[in-house]
Amino acid sequence: MTVTDERLSIDDPDAIVIGAGAGGGTAARVLTDRGLRVVVMEKGEATTAEDFLPYDEHFFHTRKALIPHVDDDPNMYVGADGQARPVERWWITNMVGGATMIWDANVPRYTDEDMAVLKYLPEVPDGADMVDWPWSYDEFQPWFERAEQEWGVSGRANQVPSQEPTRPGYDYPMPPLRPHASNGFLTDAFGRAGMRPYLGPRAINSRTAGGRPACPFCGFNQFYGCAVNSRASAANTVLPRALATGRCDLRTGHNVTRVVHEGGRVTGVMYRTEPGGEERFLGADRVIVSVQAIESARLFLLSEVPDPNDMVGHYLVYHTHGNAELTFPGQPVWDMGDAYQPRTAIGSLQLRDLYVIDDPDTHLTKGGKFSIYDPLTCIPPIRLVKGAALGPDDTDVWGDDLRTYLEELRGQGGVYFSFTGEAMSVHDNRVELDPEVTDPWGLPVARTHYRHHQYDVDLCRYALDRVCEAMGDAGGELRKYEPQPEENAGYGHVQGTLRAGTDPGASVLDAECQSHTVAGLYVLDCAWMPTSGASNPTMTLLANAYRVCERMP
Amino acid sequence: MRSVPVPPGGHLSPEARQQVAVLFDAILPGTATAPGATDVGAAGFLDVLLSADEELFYEVPAWRRTYAAALPALDGVARERFGHPLGELPDGDARELVAALAAGDLPGLPEGVDARRLFATLRNHCIEGCFADPRWGGNRDEAMWRWLGYGRPPEGADIATPSGITGPAGTDPEAEAEVVPDGVMIVASTTELTLTVSEAAR
């Protein structure tokens, strides 16, 4: 299922949606369903599944075919040395579907621990500015359910007590993806440490559903387009529904340069269809921005949205993130079975037992969760082998050491952990307009300033150490250990920058994700999130998009 | 199609290609049972990569300058320190040369060529040349994929189904395979999957 080229032209829309990704696609879906006429402005072009063949790690990932290039369209990052330098934007995907075209569709929900965060962080560390969200998890539950049904999530409720709670009688629309061969061993090992992993929800078909096939486990997931459409994206779920109403005008190659507003009301957008081209106006009294948190803050700054509290762009927050990899001497390499066995990350486990930390030996209370993978099948081999290490301080190995690593990889079972944790919101962590560097359209690029709070750094190490200890007790030997450093030049999970809240003196957006200062201007990417939360954010982004758009006046 | 035709290659002279092959083989040597960089023609990958248009890969001009400056300099070091040209350097000497690069301890490199950064570039390109799709000029006959077990079981490896697996670790005999019109094999399971974790308390 792909987006068609045929489109009607709407010149006086009821709403303009900027960005055809997760948030924008969902907004178009809901608003057109409600009878509104919507124009979606997408900077990139439409793709079809065939555009992502042949599977080719060198082209798509190593040489970054699907993201903007750092040489002419970067973000600028100010590091510890105070110097701004250009950095990659791995999760900016300018095409219909946005980053959902290359995500790995790991779709946990944010829960009470994330939204009522102060309950789980009774002592907010110095320098952090943490706030409760203006909504409860219970309030969000119906919207999570709607998103999981419409996007086609595989999973199973009530496997373990620590997983995201669901309402009685609820379950995901299809069963979980096939478990990875290591899951039994790992579940036993964690069980001895008092922890219980579970099969996490994925927006990937485990069965033929929604006109899309079940996942054939090709092995190319994160950073690759899905060539069979078994992985959900905005382009194969919500946007086709929006287009089918006849009330959605999807305009590709349309780059919105600023939001136009007058007297505290939005009036439309200015846009260009090519660099250097004529700047044109399209009017509407609802404008919905969903172009990723850094870019949304940039658009607010470019549009000079009134900012009486010095908050636009502030409280940019990346999850604290780290990895660890262990190998199990004597444990045969996980049997990949025949062609139907998962050969990639997606059939693997999640661990939420450290979402809240109850340990007298640490000051840490609000934690995070792990995605658990098989190192051999987690990612394609170029990226995997470049990261080869024989210990925390023995990285970038080569020669005989690289041979040793490869022999272990193919001969022994292993495990790879990816930790996603709560990060402290800090006012100085922010997005600005770069004073010097412009994008190909002549607009200032985003410049970020970011230092992780010490809490984030401590949390990541604590969590990695806990799972490494459990795996060590099961015979594992540590190979990779990559905790969160203080610097962060950019990361896929990006939240904050346009914080939502009920107090106009302490937030940019109201509780309906509408600007406090420009009525009719809404934000649906993760910029509205008041704090980081501690899970992959897109499911919560989606649920919120349904919530906001169903209630939008 | 977003993918592109592979560049023609032919950027490196035969001498330069041989020099690269020596360095790559030190970074990923083969054994009696496992292919190394030379066995899979990893230097051929670099030859193709450096022939790519700047419009395709923006890093290419910088890499061309790096190799053009570094290879003659390393050849000079090899002749001076080991008494052999780089392209004929014995394995042990090549290892010593790469170790010096990795340690950032190699006097005599030209202005603008940093030893550690050069090592990182060589290592990255060696690994790409070994593990990239063969259409890019390395990984001949998918030999590295076959040895590692990428996309298939590793050749000759001892594979056993680990203990503790209670779920459908391998085949699901109830699974119905069907071929969709474009030839992509898909699987629709008609059975309920068995979870490997126990039921929750709640």
* SS-based class of chain B: mainly alpha
Strand order across the biggest sheet of chain B? 1-2
Tally the helices of chain A: what do you get? 13
| Helical content band of chain A | 10-25%
Q: What are its keywords?
A:
heterodimer; A: 553 residues; alpha+beta; 5-stranded parallel beta sheet; 13 helices; globular; disordered N terminus; B: 202 residues; 6 helices; 40% helix
Written description of the protein model:
- The complex is a heterodimer of chains A (about 550) and B (about 200).
- Chain A has about 550 residues and is of the alpha+beta class.
- Helix content of chain A is about 25%, strand content about 20%.
- In chain A, α1 runs parallel beside α7 (about 240-245), α1 (about 20-35) packs parallel to α13 (about 540-550) and α5 (about 135-150) packs across α13.
- Chain A starts with 14 loop residues before the first strand and ends with a helix.
- Chain B is mostly helical.
- Chain B has helices at about 15-25, 40-50, 60-80, 90-100, 115-130, 145-150; strands at about 175-180, 185-190.
- Chain B has a two-stranded antiparallel ribbon.
- The longest helix of chain B has 23 residues, at about 60-80.
- Chains A and B meet through α2, α6, β5, α10 and α11 of A and α4, α5, α6 and β2 of B.
Topology:
The complex is a heterodimer of chains A (553) and B (202).
Chain A: E1 15-18, H1 22-33, E2 38-42, H2 57-62, E3 75-78, E4 84-87, H3 112-115, H4 117-120, H5 137-151, H6 183-192, E5 198-199, H7 238-244, E6 248-252, E7 255-262, E8 265-272, E9 280-283, E10 287-289, H8 293-302, E11 317-318, E12 320-332, E13 349-351, E14 368-373, H9 375-378, H10 381-386, E15 389-391, E16 394-395, H11 399-411, E17 412-421, E18 430-438, E19 444-449, H12 454-473, E20 477-482, E21 494-495, E22 521-523, H13 538-551
Parallel strand pairs in A: 1-2, 1-10, 2-6, 3-19, 10-22
Antiparallel strand pairs in A: 3-4, 5-13, 7-8, 8-9, 11-21, 12-17, 12-20, 13-14, 14-17, 15-16, 18-19
Chain B: H1 14-27, H2 42-50, H3 60-82, H4 91-102, H5 115-131, H6 143-148, E1 176-179, E2 185-188
Helix pairs in contact in B: 1-2, 1-4, 1-5, 2-5, 4-5
